[in-house]
Amino acid sequence: MLYSRITRLPARSFFLFGVRGVGKSWWARATLPDAPRFDLLDEALFHDLLADPSLFRDLVSTVAPGDWVVIDEVQRVPALLNEVHRQIEERGLRFALLGSSARKLKTAGTNLLAGRAVRKSMYPLVPRELGADFNLDDVLMYGSLPVVWTADSRREVLESYTQLYLREEIRAEAVVRNLPGFVRFLPIAALLHGQAVNVAGIARDAGVARTTVAGYLDVLEDTLLTWRLPAFEARLRVRERRRPKLYWVDPGVVRAVKRQLGPVSAEERGALFEGWILGLLRAHAEERPMFDSIHYWAPAESGTEVDFLLRRDGEHLAIEAKAARRYNTALLRGLRAIEDLPGLVRRVLVHDGRRAFRTEDGIDVWPVKRFLEALRTDGLWP
What we know:
Structural class: alpha/beta
Strand order of the largest sheet: 9-10-11-12-14-13
Number of helices: 16
Helix content: 25-40%
CATH topology of the largest domain: Arc Repressor Mutant, subunit A
Number of domains: 3
Order of helices and strands: EHEHHEHEHEHHHHHEHHEEHHEEEHEEEH
Number of strands: 14
CATH architecture of the largest domain: Orthogonal Bundle
CATH class of the largest domain: Mainly Alpha
Shape: globular
């Protein structure tokens, strides 16, 4: 089954980044069915344009000014962006530039068309897209990448996903020199889902240098598998700075990397739920100005945290994500600790229970269904 996506077509040229299997190509075909499409996974086309990017000028010579052109896997030939730039400037063509990695574009010194193309991201399927097919337990177990969700055997597809990533994103593009070291690093990084990143500790566990681990973390982020969420650091001294937290893009992917694809255990459910909530915030923020920045909150003098602190127009919104199915006041510890933060306009606990209410001290307690409604109606902020 194919699902309609919340991703909207910009009015001008754009990059659309997302991990493999997230549905970029399908979306482009459905949204721009008449646009000429150039897939750089086509080896003949890839080698022709790699040898002489100027050939692209002839390939689009019959496209009318103002019309759309789709280039898939654009990161494989970064030099092609010079021709794209020329066609935008001289002929007014509009380009949908799809990619599963921004790494080669950055390392090649390209400037992503100097603002002539907006940058967008596509995320795994969200409940609004899944509709009646949404099931939280299934999403936390298998994730919601379309390539996995629509498969006859989700487990089998997930088991092959890591090998696909290693083969097509890492080995084929020669992103890392020490592939065995990177393979050892991956499951360690997966175990850190939702945790602060300790580079020295990871290096020790993976048996590689700290600088190598730092590079590996960059690879994961550039190939769109992970995000690093910074700590909120208002008025903190340098020595008090907190490490960023590492989150994987999809619950199923992180479980596949850990080689844990059985039923979700109680120990892992909390981190999977937390990472899934972050993914929803990021996915919906792609289509509307939901926040200017997002951090986690963990002041140096406190032993508590708040999962997500959103900032917009000088105001803050605090969100705590708990997978608990039963509400208890202990779940509010972090949200009560952050009460005096300047500019704080709302505190929300998102939990896997059924009750929605507001506490006496003004904390909104929302089940997942109420949180999803707020995302859909732009009702997250008061």
